[in-house]
Design brief:
Elements (H helix, E strand, L loop, with lengths): L17 H10 L5 H33 L1 H12 L6 H4 L5 H15 L11
Helix pairs in contact: 2-3
């Protein structure tokens, strides 16, 4: 049987400028503010997704009409834009870098996972 339970919503802290918070308080009743913000964010994120999809579809149509564009796109995809670190920094020592990065993260109280702080 499939697990059809939806995960619990994630709580986030938003900091709003005073003028925006005041307008939100005046415009939306207290027990409806969370859903108002959820709906607004969802709408904007879906709009952004639709714009990206439309841009991809437009590019696909252009590449279909002009094979030279498709070839150029493939050249970009196949390109080695950075190359080996040895090519552009022969003095780079990955082991020293990793050790020093770990020390710096520990000093900042960062865990091994990016974006998380130790408790």
């Amino acid at each position: 049987m499939l697990n059809t339970q939806t995960p619990a919503p994630r709580q986030v802290l938003l900091r709003l400028p005073e003028d925006v918070a005041s307008r939100l308080a005046r415009a939306v009743p207290p027990r409806k503010r969370n859903q108002f913000l959820v709906d607004l964010l969802r709408q904007e994120l879906e709009k952004e997704d639709a714009e990206l999809i439309a841009a991809c579809e437009a590019m696909n149509r252009m590449e279909a009409a002009h094979p030279e564009l498709l070839q150029e796109t493939q050249e970009w995809l196949d390109a080695d834009l950075v190359g080996s670190v040895d090519d552009w920094d022969p003095d780079f020592d990955a082991e020293t870098f990793s050790r020093e990065a770990a020390i710096a993260q520990a000093a900042l109280g960062l865990s091994a996972k990016p974006g998380q702080r130790k408790k």
